[in-house]
Amino acid sequence: MKQLTVELGERSYPIWIGPGVIEQLPRLLEEAGIDSGRKLFIVTDEHVAPLYLDQTKSQLQDAGYMVYHSVVEAGEKAKSLAVYERVMTEALEAGLDRKSAFLALGGGVVGDLAGFAAATYMRGVAFVQIPTTLLAHDSSVGGKVAVNHPLGKNIIGAFHQPRLVAYDTEFLKTLPPREVAAGFAEVIKHGLIWDETFVTWLEQNAEGLQRFEHDLLQEALLRACSVKVAVVSEDEKERGLRAILNLGHTFGHAFEALCGYETLNHGEAVSIGMVAAAMLAERLGIASGISARTRHILEKYRLPVMLPHAMNADEIIEAMRRDKKGEGGKLVFVLPTAIGKVEIRKDVAEEPVREVLRALQEGGES
Ligand SMILES: NC(=O)c1ccc[n+]([C@@H]2O[C@H](COP(=O)([O-])OP(=O)(O)OC[C@H]3O[C@@H](n4cnc5c(N)ncnc54)[C@H](O)[C@@H]3O)[C@@H](O)[C@H]2O)c1
Ligand SMILES: O=C(O)C(=O)C[C@@H](O)[C@H](O)[C@H](O)COP(=O)(O)O
Ligand SMILES: [Zn+2]
């Protein structure tokens, strides 16, 4: 197993990646200062629970922890205030105190939800990420935790860093193909914002990576997580640099919200959003020839590059004006200037954005 470290002074923490990490969990918890004898509260979802909850729970119980759990519905709908309230009720009923810890066993939905519960339970308790999706190489690192509001993605949230990320890559073997593709959207994003050589490597190894060939998968996760680690270690609370991790997300979050968090999953919405960002950059004259390559790599990973059905442009723009990166309702985008390089553009005019939205629904551009 390999280790990366998020460097945040006294809140620094390790990310352990590899097959069999879960068997080391009790030791890793001890090393993170979460001693046996404490109460642990695992939040997981209805797909992950039958696969990995018993195994995880019994290892922790054998090591002397008192373990409780909550199983939430699968999918984005669980990132809601209603589900958050239920999780809090169950944690209170289990008698969790300030020395207890929340463990997120699942994908980004469970990670964001459990993390927000941990950030707010008795004003904040310890939190551990045990990611089970490919996409969660991104969501489990960096401490952004949140639930959604019908009017906006991740609007109710906090920054609350985990004490530890324990990423057992064996868990990925049961992921459905659609979720594998969604995970690659954020892997590709980490290349597009930071490192053209990583993008080229992802293009060259697309088949082997999608078959989850061990060495390739390990390398992809380490390279993608390293980008996230570098950015978060420099700008934990998104005062500046961290916003680059939002490539494709101004568009993507609006698409997700307007689908009622149903038709498109996060990775798919970000995929279309990254194509939109590349097209917008070309229209604004800050990049050329990048949208075709962006579209091409995403298609290689079986990701959508067009909106699946008609969406109202006024509503998309209204949702984008509520994006957390913006001030005073201005349209703010992370835009590529080349493959591997991005910049943040504040106060983008509406017309080029509308043109891009039209092209995304009508057949795109060559
Ligand atoms: N906090 C962050 O920095 C950050 C970063 C990226 C994304 N996110 C958030 O993450 C969420 C998306 O995460 P996701 O794509 O992991 O979605 P998810 O958590 O909904 O998981 C996707 C699906 O896969 C199932 N699943 C999970 N692990 C499995 C496994 N090992 N085997 C079989 N099925 C499994 C789940 O039950 C679910 O149906 C979004 O809400 C997004 O906003 C947060
Ligand atoms: O960690 C970050 O910062 C990111 O932007 C990573 C994104 O992939 C992720 O979807 C994040 O939750 C978006 O954050 P938000 O602040 O735009 O809600
Ligand atoms: Zn994302």
Automatic annotation (TrEMBL):
Residues where NAD(+) binds: 108-112, 132-133, 144, 153, 171-174
Pathway: Metabolic intermediate biosynthesis; chorismate biosynthesis; chorismate from D-erythrose 4-phosphate and phosphoenolpyruvate: step 2/7
Catalytic reaction(s) noted: 7-phospho-2-dehydro-3-deoxy-D-arabino-heptonate = 3-dehydroquinate + phosphate
Matches recorded under InterPro entries: Dehydroquinate_synthase, DHQ_synth_AroB, DHQ_synth_fam, DHQS/DOIS_N, DHQS_C
Cofactor note: Binds 1 divalent metal cation per subunit. Can use either Co(2+) or Zn(2+).
Entry binding sites for Zn(2+): 186, 249, 266
GO CC term (a single one): cytoplasm
Gene3D superfamilies documented for this protein: 3.40.50.1970, Dehydroquinate synthase-like - alpha domain
Cofactor: Co(2+); Zn(2+); NAD(+)
The UniProt record lists the keyword Zinc: yes
Domain 3-dehydroquinate synthase C-terminal, first and last residues per copy: 183-325
Superkingdom per UniProt: Bacteria
Location in or out of the cell: Cytoplasm
Keywords on record: Amino-acid biosynthesis, Aromatic amino acid biosynthesis, Cobalt, Cytoplasm, Lyase, Metal-binding, NAD, Nucleotide-binding, Zinc
GO molecular function: 3-dehydroquinate synthase activity; metal ion binding; nucleotide binding
Family of this protein: Belongs to the sugar phosphate cyclases superfamily. Dehydroquinate synthase family.
Role summary: Catalyzes the conversion of 3-deoxy-D-arabino-heptulosonate 7-phosphate (DAHP) to dehydroquinate (DHQ).
Name this protein carries in UniProt: 3-dehydroquinate synthase
Organism: Aneurinibacillus danicus
Upper taxonomic lineage: Bacteria, Bacillati, Bacillota, Bacilli, Bacillales
